[in-house]
Amino acid sequence: MTTHAPTADHHHPWTGRVEDEAFLRGTGRYGDDVRPEGALAVVFVRSPHAHARIRAVDTAVALAEPGVVAVLTGADLRALGSVSGGRPVPDRTGRPTASPFRPALAADRVVHVGEPVALVVAETRAAAEDAAEMVEVDYEPLPAVVTADQALAPGAPSLGPDGAGNVAHDFAAPPEGDAAAAAALEAAFAGAAHVARITVENQRLVVASLEPRTATASHDPATDSYVLRAPAQGNGPLRAAVAGALKIPPDRLRYVTEDVGGAFGMKGQPYPEYVALCVAAKAVGRPVHWASTRSEAFLTDTQARDSVWTVELALDADGRFRGLKVDGLANVGAYVTSVSHLIAATHITGCLPSIYDIPAARVRSRSVLTNTGVVAPYRGAGRPEANYLLERAIDVAAAETGLDRAEIRRRNLIPADRMPYRTPFGHVYDSGDFPGLFEKAVRLADYAGFPARKAAAAARGRLRGIGIGGYLEIAGALPEEPAAIAFVGDGRIEVRIGACPSGQGHATVFRAVAADRLGVPVESVTVTFGDTARDVLGIGAVGSRSAMMTGGAIAEAARATIAKGARVSALLFQAAEADVRHADGAFTGPAAGQRLTLVEVAARARELAEQGAIPESLDTTAVCKAASAFPNGCHVAEVEIDAETGVTTVVGYLAVDDCGNVLDHTIVEGQIHGGVAQGLGQALMEATVYDPDSGQLLSGSFMDYAMPRADDVPPLTVAHHPVACRTNPLGTKGTGEAGTTAAPCAIMNAILDALPPGARLDMPATPMRVWEAIRSAGG
Fold it and tell me: Do 580 and 674 fall within a single domain?
């Protein structure tokens, strides 16, 4: 039997994304577009305090309001389980993650502004809003801690479970008992000719997805089961989390996700509202619907980043990196989500030492609880932090050694002939050509011609700088992902996946993968996702893993489908299986005229399976189990600064990336463009600000939280330097987080290159902060 060989960098014979027509015509099905008949409106009552004890909740006046059907409080939901919690990964002391219980509605204590304490169900949203204003909550304010430093101070209020303090996870790698690793690091620093030191901050961000969260819940009393329609990136894990909080078996909750308007990790989390809505639907006997306002989103959607890192980089006399020490403090907010404590831990060590050969390294970090919004994965989730801290340290090392910033990187790149390369943290880079990629980047960016551009800018009264941002990410795994192929009649094939898209083009890319592997017309394939009653239950679209893991699972399912088809064809042809061939979507036997298409064989196989003649039809579910992949690249940014105002303009941006085999050039470039825009936002303007005393969110709207606009993003040049990954069937590495990982370090290195010597600046490089940095350096 023969099958299609893997196709790298394949251009499929169609144009455009199949998703886009519905979006362009306004027929998408987003969260607020679909409501069951008779659905009631829900509005949540939220805490105005960052930390307070709840003395009492009075709902009598609210219940008497016209149109109000019910009011639920935390007391009504006491029997439920925790909405979310961190994976109990032992930390460096052997203690499992300190993860506070997170209620669907707070009953005894609130620990961040915006935490839900009650919900109102009414005939209309207006009635629910009016009644929510009438719910009286008697709070006893308590001291709040807003920063990680405050939370670690003696006498700080304890937010951890059972008064366990505020350190959720204390991490060290390599393990502190690894004497050989410790000795190697000590020797690297003892023999260093130079040690570059820097402290950098990754400020807190809000996700600000285009579509705020919405959810609709209904309950079937006959089966005591629920349907929850809510956004997800993979609704298998979210179904499990919501069902766990409801204390029901997962098969009694159907979780449905349709179109999602932006996710970025934030919509990969379970939320208190989803659990409370299910309870409300059962209580009132009708479907209930909730749509977050933008103000609620600022307070209650998971937030991102918020960590400070101290870095030491040891170099020998030739400018070669010998050792790296990293110490971090991460603010994870009031609760721990499944992996929020790992962002500053294993997500950091998975990316270091990036594309550079650093033989000895150590990372120590602490994830700390505070009275702020919950921090969770957001596009990059530790990758931007790891690469930012290292690339900034490399620029400091270049300045202190007198080496050119490109040259110092060039000397330390891991050569291609050292692949596979084992890092000091035990990860293995399976593939990559870091020197070739780097040289392509500096050549396409015309790094050598920069001095002339800098002089021309100076003649116009502008400061000009260039910055290099090399990067490497850990992607995929987690640890497997399924996909299913189903023959549904009339020549149609469904590919059922567990990754819910939010703009990545899954329906386009994955039907292409299936059509290519099965040898069928792409038009005959449809990709389905988002319904736990129909589709496979995977981990989903997180961690730049969809192409490699979901795509790999589709490839495995296609291989298994063709193998089963060959066995059925052999039976139908009355031939030996070894004599059956598959090509171009059809099976042929050894005799003249023996030819059946794949869909014809599938139809016959279904009949035979129903008759008991064969054990199963051609419908196939397969699982991709693959080791992590390591996308990498080099981005180069150029900026110009008006020294009189501090206004920074990104005037040029080049991205060269290795995402392994490219499945769809347009979609890959779109992902890079989007990621760079978000990384630019972090570098130049975005910052979530809480009042340090009260814990009130001061940047709670777009009046106070700046977001990049189209004219802030320069024309981008995107090039590829693909090296096929060896750890998954498609040879892909992932690209969804490349831009957010590389852009902050490239842009900030460019800004600091433009500023006078001695200027100190960290993100966000707002005009005021740039202006102050220029003046503080004597500019």
Answer: no
Tell me whether residue 398 is in a domain.
no
Give the integer Cα–Cα distance in Å for 23 and 410: 45
The span from the CA of 641 to the CA of 644, in Å, is 9
Domain for residue 323, yes or no?
A: no
Neighbour count for residue 638 (Cβ, 10 Å): 27
What separation in angstroms does the CA of 358 have from each of 188, 322, 362?
10, 5, 11
Instruction: Examine the pLDDT at 148 and tell me if it is beyond 60.
Output: yes
Answer whether residue 675 is part of any domain: yes
Q: Side chain identity at 482, as an amino acid letter?
A: P
**589 and 506, same domain (yes or no):** yes
- pLDDT tens digits along 489-505: 999 999 999 999 999 99
- Is the peptide bond preceding residue 757 cis, with omega within 30 degrees of 0? no
Closest-CA residue to 19 (of 10, 9, 28): 28
Average pLDDT of the residues in 694-718: 96
The Cβ of residue 88 has, within 10 Å, a number of other Cβ atoms equal to 12
Question: In terms of domains, do 753 and 654 share one?
Answer: yes
| Cβ atoms 471, 633 nearer than 8 A | yes
Sheet order of strands, 581-583 included: 581-583, 586-588, 595-597
Alpha carbons 413 and 436: distance in angstroms, whole number: 10
Do both 568 and 642 map to the same domain?
A: no
Cα–Cα dist 93/72, whole Å? 41
- Chain centre distance of CA 248: 28
Instruction: Report whether 547 contacts 663 (CB < 8 A).
Output: yes
Task: Give 318's contacts (C-beta < 8 A, 6+ positions apart).
Answer: 411
CATH classification of the domain holding 461: 3.30.365.10
Count of other CB atoms within 10 angstroms of residue 766 = 18
Q: How far apart are the first and last CA of the chain?
A: 73
Q: How confident is the model over 344-348, as a mean pLDDT?
A: 96
Residue with the two structure tokens 């001291």:
143
The pair of structure tokens assigned to 503 is 């703009």
Tens digit of pLDDT for each residue in 641-674? 999 999 999 999 999 999 999 999 999 999 999 9
Domain end (from 567, 602, 625): 625
Query: Which residue type occupies 209?
Result: S
What does the pLDDT read at residue 202?
98
* 573 lies in the same domain as 674: no
Tell me: do 635 and 776 sit in the same domain.
Answer: yes
Contact indicator for 218, 281 with CB cutoff of 8 Å: yes
Domain span at residue 672 reads 431-475+630-779
- What is the reported pLDDT for 6? 30
- The rounded distance, in Å, linking the Cα atoms of 124 and 129 is 9
Report the number of distinct structural domains present in the chain: 2
The predicted structure's pLDDT at residue 10: 34
Distances (CA, A) of 37 to 216, 266, 730: 12, 29, 44
In this structure, the answer to whether residues 667 and 699 fall within a common structural domain is yes
Same domain, 652 and 618: no
Question: Final residue of a domain: which of 558, 591, 625?
Answer: 625
